[in-house]
Amino acid sequence: MRYRYILKRLLLLPITLFLIILVNFVIINLAPGEPVFVTEVGKGGEASRKEGQGASRHDERYLQFREFFGLTLPILWNSWPWTTSDKVLEDLTMLQSRRNAATGDELSASAYSALQIETGDRARFVLPILLQIMEEKAQNIEIRKEALYQFLRGATRFAHIGARLSEQERQENEQISVNNLYLDDFRIHPLRTKEELNREVSELQKWYGIHQEELQGNPTREQKIVLFFFETRFSKYLGRVFRLDFGVLRSDTNRSVISEVISRLKYSLTLSLLPMLATFFLCQIFGLCMAIWKDSTFDRSLNLFFLLLYATPVFVIGPFLIETIALHHNYPFTSIPFPIRGFSSSEAIYSNLTTIERIFDIARHITLPLLTILYGSLAVQSRLSRAIFIDTLNYDFVRTARAKGVGPLVLYLIHVGKNAAIPIVTSVAGSLGAILGGSVIVETIFEIHGFGKFFYDAILNRDYNVMMFSSLVGSFLGLVGYLVADITYMWLDPRVDLEAKRA
To answer: d(Cα 211, Cα 127) in Å, to the nearest integer?
Structure first.
C-alpha cells in the first residue's frame, strides 16, 4: 500500500512540476518590459528602468538579443500564421501614420514601440502578405517601404550560437550568413523613387521564390497547427529543459546558468542546511522544556523571548550583530576580529591556509550570518514544538508509561520525543524548496555571493533564464520535500495510512 502511494506521488510529480513551470513562465513573460531594460537604483533607494542601448527596431544587436533569448515568439500559442492581409496592412498603416486605425488618435510612445516589436516579430510568418503589399504599385509608397523593411526583418535569420554546434548547424550558419549579406544590401541603400522600390521588390520576389520552402513562407494547414503549438516561447523553453539546457546569463552569454549556480551552491547550502538542522534539534529541546514546565516563569520567559525574536526582522538583527559584536569584540578565545563580509577570506589568504585553518576561517565568517538566519526559524519552530509536546504529554500512552515506572529520560526521549517529532520533521522536510534560495537579505548584508543574491540580481536584470531555473529547482525541491515528509511521517508512525479512504 505504501509503495503504491509513493509510486502515485512520483507519477504526479512531473505533472505538478509542469503546471508550476507553466504558471511561472507565463507570469515572468507577461511582466512589463524585456531583458533589454536595465534597472537602476537611485540614491534614495528608488528603483527605475531605462531602455538599454540598441533597443531600436533597426538595431541588429537588439534583434539578435531578442532572437537569442526566444522573445520573438508568442508565449503559449502562435496564431500569427493565420494573420490576414487586412490586419498586416492595418498595422503597416498605423506604423506610418502613428495613429490608431480604429479611433484616429495618435499612438503613445509605448503603444507605438509595442506595435513595432509585434509587427517585426510576426513578419517571418506573413512574408507572402508583405511581398504582396510591396508589389501593389497603387499602394502608398511609404507603406510599401515599410512592408519592404518588415519583409527584410522577417526573412533575416540569426545564426546558431555556441561552442558545441553540430555539423548541420554549421552548414545552416553558412547559408544564413549568405542570405543575410544579400538582404543587408537592401537595407544600406535608402529608397527615393518608385522605380528603385519596384526594382528591389522584383529582385526580392525572385530571391523569395528560390528560398520559399526554406523560409516556410506558405505553410500547409498541418504545418500551421504544428507552428501553433510548438513555435512558441514556452515550447522552446520546455524543449531545452528536457535536454537539461537552462540557458546562459543575460549579461554574459559565455557563462551558463548551471555553472553559475554550482559555483554558488556551497554558500546557499551552508546557509540553509546548517540552520535547518540546528533549528530542528534546538526547537525539540526548548519545546520539551517549555512543555514540561508549562506556565512556569521559565516557560513564560522563553515564550516572550521567542515572541520578541519572531517580531524582529532580519534586516534589523544583521546590522545589530555587526554593530554590537563584530565591531567591538573578537572571535571567542582568540584575538581575531569577527569578519563582517564574505564567506571566507580573500583568495590570496585562503589559498595559503591548511584544511583545518580553512574550516576555521569559514566558521568565523559564517557565524554571524548563521545566527541571523537561525533566530527567526528557531523562534517559530520552538513555539510550535512546545504546543506539540504539550499535546503529546496528554496522550494515554504517556500516562501508561509513567504508571509502568518508565524513567523520565526514556519517557521524554523515546515515547514523547519520537511522536512529537513527526510534525516538526514534516515542517522541516517541507521547506527543502528554500535550500537554493538561501537568504537574500543576509547574503546582501554580509556580502556573500550565494544563490539568493544571485536570484535577486536576476530579477532586477530581467534575466529570464536564471529566474525560471530558480523557480524550477525550488519547486522541484519543494515537491520532493513534501514527499520525504510523507514518507518520514509513515516511518515514524506505522499507524498512518495516507491512502486510507474517508468514511
So the answer is: 12
d(CA 368, CA 385): 25
Residues 6+ apart with CB under 8 A from 342: 365, 446, 447, 448
Show the domain range for 143.
77-231
Q: What is the three-state SS of 149-188?
A: HHHHHHHCCCCCCCCCCCHHHHHHHHHHHHHHHHHHHHHH
Question: What are 38's strand-pairing partners?
Answer: 50
3-state secondary structure at position 125: helix
Q: Is the pLDDT of residue 382 over 90?
A: no
Distances from the Cα of 277 to the Cα of 16, 324, 430, 488, 501, angstroms: 28, 26, 13, 16, 34
Residue 202 lies in a domain: yes
Quick one: pLDDT band at residue 435, thresholds 50, 70, 90?
low
Percent of the chain at pLDDT > 90 equals 14
Rg (CA), the chain: 31
Q: How far is it, in rounded angstroms, from Cα 241 to Cα 464?
A: 14
Closest CA to 481 of 423, 427, 421, 424: 427
Phi, psi of 114 (to 5 degrees): -65, -40
Contact (CB, 8 A) for 275 and 374: yes
In a domain, 475, yes or no: no
Name every residue whose Cβ is closer than 8 Å to that of residue 82 and which is 6 or more positions away in sequence.
Answer: 224
pLDDT at 102 > cutoff 60: yes
Q: What angle do CA 149, 153, 155 make, to 5 degrees?
A: 115
DSSP code string of 408-432? HHHIIIIIIHHHHHHHHHHHHHTTG
For residue 474, being part of any structural domain is answered with no
Please compute, for residue 377, the number of CA atoms within 13 A of its CA located in the half-sphere on the CB side.
24
Instruction: Give the list of residues 6+ apart from residue 220 with CB closer than 8 angstroms, or none.
Output: none
CB distance 478 to 470 below 8 Å? no
For the stretch 463-493, pLDDT in tens is 888 888 888 887 887 788 778 777 777 776 6
In sequence order, which ranges of 189-256 are alpha helices (DSSP H)? 194-215, 221-230, 233-242
Helix (H, G, I), strand (E, B) or coil at 50: strand
Nearest alpha carbon to residue 441 among 350, 498, 348, 375:
375
Confirm whether 237 is domain-assigned: no
What is the rounded CA–CA span in Å between residue 261 and residue 268? Answer: 10
Give SS3 for 39. Answer: strand
CA-closest candidate to residue 450, choices 316, 265, 293, 196:
265
Residues 6+ apart with CB under 8 A from 46: none
Q: How big is the chain, counted in residues?
A: 503
Q: What is the mean pLDDT of residues 369-378?
A: 84
Residue 109 has phi, psi (to 5 degrees) of -60, -40
How many domains, the chain? 1
